[in-house]
Specification:
The protein is α/β, with parallel strands linked by helices and 755 residues long. It has 28 helices and 17 strands. Bound molecules: 2-acetamido-2-deoxy-beta-D-glucopyranose (10 copies). Pfam families: NAGLU, NAGLU_C, NAGLU_N.
């Protein structure tokens, strides 16, 4: 349904950059130094018109739009009937786009999502809103999007076609503060070369495409590289388009700033510079980790930081003044002295402000959650208050599970954004804190003295659990919690273009069970993604679930019944795969625990029986995943290879693509962290891994010896895991079978195994 808009109109709509002067007068609570989109109203109007054309095609002429900026700080929009058409006015391009999408959702029951679009049979003429019009107000000033990891886990191989779609989706969902990290290596390269670094120095510094996020944060360096020059240049060109489009819609793209991590060569070039070597990150050793941190009080720190901002402003024709930098993400500072931390923090900000006096430092608050033993109140206070009030904006990154604003008294007065993180590594697996997401942002915002200024979504990877994001994105534009029963019913209706009682029941059941984790914190990641993606072992203990497991069976039954009456449309096909995938994962888990029990009972024939169920199930898992491109590893690899300009580059990108979702590091340093329920990955990696495990168990029983995990681990690494990352077998990119047919077959075959 997406139409391509003539490129010349896009160019006509190019942004005009004026340097917006910030008001320095506001201070105290609830204030973030004001930042406004500096793009003219008529540019935004044209950009949002073009967006609506991409969604509705010729019928876009039935929607008249107008952007009218207002002095109010929060976006709002108004929809009214205008002859036989619809007119939408709003305070920004994003406000108009959000209102348009909300209209599509609630008046036309349509959906545009990561998980497919449902834009079938849009009513003729467009339904009227009430005669008094429909007014839509944002509850908060900012709606933020992206974790610094999202660019590596999800958008790393995207071309402009895919980016354009995502930016449209952002606007349609009200996002006005997106992270814009693409292409920064080209600019770092210029800065470091001016400082004397050679190409070789930088080859050892930049990580490969699929690992850039962690290279940028100083967690690792060099792994997955060397980063080709063609990559740096083409990504920079892509970033130009991304920024131009974001700005034209009235968004404020968040650009990178300098956090202090430098190429090791800096110590050779500037022997007097004070640096420290960070400890190794995760299970990496110093070959690819232990990055050099330039000490913040060294004058070179501010110099590099401001050179970067300057170079970036030149390249992107100005700036939007908000910069992200994460100095101590998952890395412990060398000192917990409050003076040291305050100096470090101040240096990061000053390095931005030296060139851009209107700079605001946006920081992920993840460190406070990941290292609470280090980040106690005095340390946090020192870090956040060393920056002038309102010049720092903190992403409370994991608000639904581990909010940090309560223990920091709303970050000691610095503004923050309530973010739903929800996903790690882009893992699939149904999960959500639907009730918390629906309640907590409002309660937080309305608390006395709250410094919350926005809502956000900060998943490490996208393309999973769309329902949670659909809800969270509405939260930023509402003033009170939803009636979730009503909301879930509407979700099912718009997703399937149907008022189908079984489909509704499916989502009411899922919504009140697996998506309604009300416990404190976050369950073990392995419970969400399932054991089938983990390297098999005997030591995994069964953990408590946060939901009634019988609800899965009842949701599966309802969905299977619904399938007989739903149209064969993209969203139905997608969910046929997604729901089947989830159910098979749950069955796999129970087979696994049974198999381990039987092994402990030394019952060989039962181990064999469980083993054969499991391998058969994994084949069916691969089969259902093979029916939809969203779940095919072949597409992930093909997209990676498509960005290479020669065979060497293509092979490097393929290695990056394969390694990230499996070993995550040359030797399995973060093994299976970013696992995926994908076709081909299942058949060529998970399946043989389990087959070998079952064989080892059986052999142990036959010879009456203990299962030798050392032998198994080294065998599976040498023969399956590592070879998979280096292999170049071409995987299918086109589905062969029909998802709905296969989903029905699998349901009948396996349903009784799901208790
Ligand atoms: C860059 O910004 C200036 C104003 O600051 C504007 O005149 C010019 O058109 C812009 N160029 C592009 C390519 O957007
Ligand atoms: C972008 O990538 C997609 C595949 O992911 C492909 O279908 C599309 O043709 C590509 N667009 C361009 C302009 O190459
Ligand atoms: C912090 O910076 C100031 C001024 O640059 C310096 O005098 C002081 O020693 C630094 N404090 C620490 C603990 O590094
Ligand atoms: C905020 O403070 C006022 C006056 O101190 C009090 O009446 C009110 O109940 C408080 N509201 C909340 C949500 O704590
Ligand atoms: C809100 O701030 C005021 C003034 O700083 C203070 O007196 C009051 O105790 C605060 N209220 C809460 C609930 O923190
Ligand atoms: C919530 O919505 C459902 C479905 O529309 C409705 O039956 C119920 O009465 C609503 N509950 C409240 C408290 O409004
Ligand atoms: C989620 O669970 C809580 C606690 O059991 C319950 O109060 C709430 O109604 C549930 N929400 C939904 C949508 O089922
Ligand atoms: C294995 O268990 C089955 C029952 O599940 C039992 O019939 C059989 O005798 C057992 N075999 C051994 C060797 O214990
Ligand atoms: C460090 O990691 C690299 C890359 O995986 C490996 O080749 C090397 O042997 C490791 N060094 C040590 C001391 O373990
Ligand atoms: C387990 O396997 C390892 C590696 O093959 C071997 O060195 C070790 O002796 C084995 N352990 C036992 C108890 O057989």
């Amino acid at each position: 349904m997406y139409k391509t808009f003539p490129i010349y109109l896009v160019i006509l709509a190019a942004v005009t950059v004026l340097n917006f002067k910030l008001c320095q007068c506001e201070s105290s609570f609830k204030t973030l130094a004001p930042v406004k989109s500096y793009v003219k109203a008529n540019t935004q109007t044209k950009a949002v018109q073009a967006l609506i054309y991409r969604v509705l095609g010729d019928r876009s002429s039935e929607v008249i739009v107008e952007v009218q900026p207002s002095s109010e700080s929060k976006d709002h929009a108004y929809i009214h009937n205008y002859l036989d058409k619809l007119k939408i006015t709003g305070t920004s391009g994003v406000a108009v786009a959000f209102a348009f999408n909300k209209y599509l959702k609630y008046y036309c029951r349509k959906q545009i999502s990561w998980a497919g679009d449902q834009l079938e049979h849009i009513p003729h003429p467009l339904p009227h809103v009430p005669v008094t019009g429909w007014s839509i107000k944002a509850g908060v000033k900012y709606r933020y999007y992206q974790n610094v990891c999202t660019v590596s886990y999800s958008s790393v191989w995207w071309n402009w076609t895919r980016w354009e779609r995502e930016i449209d989706w952002m606007a349609l969902n009200g996002i006005n503060l997106p992270l814009a990290f693409t292409g920064q290596e080209a600019i770092w390269q210029r800065v470091y070369k001016q400082l004397g670094c050679t190409d070789k120095d930088l080859d050892e510094h930049f990580a490969g495409p699929a690992f850039l996020a962690w290279g940028r944060m100083g967690n690792i360096h060099g792994f997955g590289g060397p980063l080709p020059q063609s990559w740096k240049e083409s990504q920079l060109a892509l970033q130009h388009k991304i920024l131009e489009r974001m700005r034209s819609l009235g968004m404020i793209p968040v650009l990178p700033g300098f956090a202090g991590h430098v190429p090791a060569a800096i110590t050779r070039l500037y022997p007097d510079a004070e640096v420290s070597k960070l400890s190794s990150w995760s299970h990496f050793n110093c070959t690819y980790s232990c990055t050099i941190l330039l000490e913040p009080h060294d004058p070179l720190f501010r110099q590099i930081g401001s050179m970067f901002i300057e170079e970036q402003m030149k390249e992107y024709n100005g700036t939007n003044h908000i910069y992200n930098a994460d100095t101590f993400n998952e890395m412990i500072p060398r000192s917990s002295d409050v003076g040291y931390l305050a100096n470090a923090s101040n240096a990061v900000y000053e390095a931005m402000a030296k060139t851009d006096p209107d700079a605001i430092w946006l920081m992920q608050g993840w460190l406070f959650h990941s290292a609470p033993y280090f980040w106690k109140s005095p340390q946090i206070k020192a870090l956040v208050t060393a920056v002038p009030q309102g010049r720092m904006l903190i992403l409370d990154l994991f608000s639904e599970a581990f909010p940090q604003y309560p223990r920091t008294y709303d970050y000691y007065g610095q503004p923050f954004i309530w973010c739903m993180l929800h996903d790690f590594g882009g893992n699939l697996g149904f999960y959500g804190k639907i009730e918390i997401v629906n309640q907590s942002p409002y309660a937080t915002l309305h608390a006395n003295n709250s410094t919350m200024v926005g809502t956000g979504i900060t998943p490490e990877g996208i393309n999973q659990n769309y329902i949670m994001y659909d809800l969270m994105l509405e939260v930023g534009y509402s003033v009170q919690p939803e009636n979730l029963t009503f909301w879930l019913v509407e979700y099912a209706m718009r997703r399937y273009n149907a008022d189908n009682v079984d489909a509704i029941k499916t989502w009411l059941t899922l919504g009140s069970s697996i998506y309604n984790d009300t416990s404190i914190g976050f369950p073990a990641k392995s419970l969400i993604r399932g054991s089938l993606v983990k390297r098999p072992s005997l030591t995994t203990t069964e953990l408590p679930y946060w939901y009634q497991r019988s609800s899965l069976r009842s949701a599966w039954d309802s969905f299977a019944t619904a399938l007989d009456n739903l149209e064969d449309i993209e969203t139905v096909r997608y969910d046929s795969v997604d729901i089947t995938r989830q159910m098979l994962q749950a069955i796999h888990r129970s087979i696994y625990y049974n198999m381990v029990q039987e092994y402990k009972q030394k019952n060989l024939s039962n181990v064999e029986q469980m083993g054969s169920y499991m391998l058969d199930l994994l084949k069916d898992f691969d089969r259902i995943l093979s029916t939809d491109k969203h779940f095919m590893m072949g597409c992930w690899i093909a997209d990676a290879r498509a960005l290479g300009t020669n065979d060497n580059e293509k092979d490097l990108y393929e290695y990056n693509a394969r390694n990230q979702v499996t070993l995550w590091g040359p030797d399995g340093e973060i093994m299976d962290y970013a696992d995926k329920h994908w076709a081909s990955l299942t058949l060529n990696y998970y399946w043989p891994r389990w087959a070998m495990f079952i064989y080892h168990l059986e052999q142990a029983l036959v010879y009456d010896v203990a299962f030798n995990s050392t032998a198994y681990n080294s065998n599976v690494f040498r023969n399956i895991e590592e070879p998979f990352t280096k292999d170049k077998t071409v995987f299918p990119t086109v589905p062969k079978e029909h998802p709905i047919t296969v989903a029905k077959e699998i349901y009948l075959k396996w349903k009784d195994m799901l208790q």
